[in-house]
Design brief:
The protein has 502 residues and is α/β, with parallel strands linked by helices. It is built from 17 helices and 24 strands. Bound molecules: nicotinamide-adenine-dinucleotide. The site of nicotinamide-adenine-dinucleotide has 31 residues, from helix 9 and helix 10.
Length: 502
């Protein structure tokens, strides 16, 4: 289904589709769906209306051990890693095509499960995940090694080899896309993968496992273990997992590093939280565009974005004019039923996250001036909705301006000089993304050099969403990079082979 087709569907079409949707909730291990060995299940609640969507297998130790063991068998037998790169490419291209063929089903699952607008899951999440699979499929038969400079009597080869068993533990804000950023490069490189989706949004990961098998990925090579954080912990502590690729909160990331140290020193790659500064300088050429981008930077995906532009730094001279435009831009994000294709802001992922965000809003009332929003809305739906919320924050040290809220809450901070803006921007434990708006090219370069962040946007925010740019953070936003050819480095070992000629 293309974008036009998605747009041509209305709320009733999606509600009808939902009525006949069959939802799989079991784990996928060694090429087949199974219940958790313990028989335990948990309810998958839709944030749209608080209703239960399905019962999900709650995987524990026996399931983790079974998945890792079959992943290891598949790896050792070489059923996947032993294929020519162009054969792996062909299979993964089929998988991407199957995701596209099932796009409306996957988008519907994602919207029901995570509360994301269907307008986004049909145009960003699902096609983005399929594209990621296709991109790494296309890349893998072009990647080669090196012949290194060596003594005359030697030939020195530098090659990359699959690392083995990659466990991917992922969050709920972009359930399918964040998972694809891990499993696509890991599989392209020849590894076996065990994917642990978030307990808040496991449905699409479970569904695409069947599509993987249909596309020709051999049994045991791609496994999905739904369950609570405990299943992620068991993977991180497992002695036969070679690499753990994690996207999630900084606190859990720190624990995962410790688990690796307590077990087998598996490679650990972390994509963590953020509190990204979006800096509007006095010479910004187009305040209207900057205001729209600032609103989208914090309200897109209900603010459940690791790159959310949650700290808006505005020069004092333009602050009033800018805030007028920002408040208008924020109105576009009125919360609505995410199954309605005209909705641009859906539901918060679950009750706990909604209460967490409301707790920050309450704290914000004491430390800042509320400019708009601040309330739970659509209570009668049974779902979890919060208005776009903007605070004018007098002190950049305020809690709402320092801690990651992961919801639709923006802190506006005023500055007088560029140096002050850079100091405030960098005064954070995080360093995932940042942006600067200016009409001066030299200032743009100088400020972006000074910002300690993995991605810097100039005169835009959240653009360049294709696969070519490495994505990840400085400081406590993590290590390693998703996307781009650099992602392959995470899932491969470098080997030097020195051959003596005489
Ligand atoms: P989370 O850390 O609570 O959970 C992430 C995953 O880890 C889930 O699958 C969860 O079940 C699992 N988990 C929980 N406890 C665990 C433990 N002790 N050991 C192993 N696994 C465990 O994060 P979340 O609430 O799902 O997601 C929100 C966070 O993700 C935010 O901090 C956000 O910034 C971050 N995020 C970062 C990026 C990025 O690329 N940098 C992208 C998206 C989200």
């Amino acid at each position: 289904m293309d974008i036009m087709e998605a747009k041509s569907k209305d709320l009733n079409d999606w509600l009808q589709r939902r009525a006949t949707l069959r939802i799989e909730g079991r784990a996928f291990i060694d090429g087949a769906y199974r219940d958790a060995a313990s028989g335990k299940r948990f309810d998958c609640i839709s944030p749209i209306d608080g209703a239960s969507l399905a019962q999900i297998a709650e995987c524990g130790e026996a399931d983790v051990n079974a998945a890792v063991a079959c992943a290891r068998r598949a790896f050792d037998r070489g059923v996947w890693r032993g294929l020519n790169p162009r054969q792996r490419k062909a299979v993964m291209l089929r998988w991407g095509a199957l995701m596209r063929a099932h796009q409306d089903e996957l988008a519907l699952l994602e919207t029901l499960d995570a509360g994301k607008p269907i307008a986004d899951t049909t145009t960003v999440d699902v096609p983005g995940a399929a594209y990621c699979v296709e991109w790494f499929a296309e890349a893998i038969d072009k990647a080669g090694g090196e012949v290194a400079a060596a003594d005359h009597h030697l030939v020195g080869l530098v090659t990359r080899e699959a690392i083995g068993i990659v466990a991917a533990v992922v969050p709920w804000n972009f359930p399918l896309l964040m998972a694809a950023w891990k499993f696509a490069p890991a599989l392209a490189a020849g590894n076996s993968v065990v994917l642990k989706p978030s307990e808040k949004s496991p449905l699409t990961a479970i569904r695409i496992a069947q599509l993987a098998l249909e596309s020709g990925i051999p049994a045991g090579v791609f496994n999905v273990l739904p369950g609570a954080g405990e299943a992620g912990k068991l993977l991180a502590l497992h002695h036969d997992v070679d690499c753990l690729a994690f996207t999630g909160s900084t606190n859990v990331g720190k624990q995962i590093m410790q688990y690796a140290g307590q077990s087998n020193l598996k490679r650990v790659w972390l994509e963590l939280g953020g509190k990204s500064p979006n800096i509007v300088l006095a010479d910004c050429a187009d305040l209207g565009r900057a205001a729209q981008a600032a609103a989208s930077a914090i309200f897109y995906n209900m603010g459940e974005m690791c790159t959310a532009g949650s700290r808006l730094l505005v020069h004092r001279d333009i602050k009033d004019a800018f805030l007028d435009k920002l408040l208008v831009a924020a109105r576009k994000y009125s919360p609505g039923n995410p199954l309605d294709p005209t909705t641009s802001m859906g539901a918060i992922v679950d009750q706990a996250q909604m209460e967490r965000v409301l707790g920050y809003i309450d704290a914000g009332r004491d430390e800042a001036r509320l400019l708009t929003g601040g309330a739970r809305v659509k209570r009668e739906s049974g779902g979890f909705y919060i208005e776009p919320t903007i605070f004018d924050v007098p002190d950049a040290q305020a809690r709402i301006a320092r801690e990651e809220i992961f919801g639709p809450v923006l802190s506006v901070i005023t500055f007088d000089t560029i140096d002050e803006a850079i100091r405030i921007a960098n005064d954070s434990e995080y360093g995932l993304a940042a942006a600067v708006w200016t009409s001066n090219l030299t200032t743009a370069h100088e400020v972006s050099r000074a910002l300690r962040a993995g991605t810097v946007w100039v005169n835009c925010y959240d653009e360049g969403g294709d696969m070519n740019f490495p994505f990840g953070g400085y400081k406590q936003s993590g290590n390693g990079r998703d996307k781009s050819l650099h992602a392959l480095e995470k899932y491969t070992e470098l080997k030097s082979t020195l051959i003596r000629l005489r």
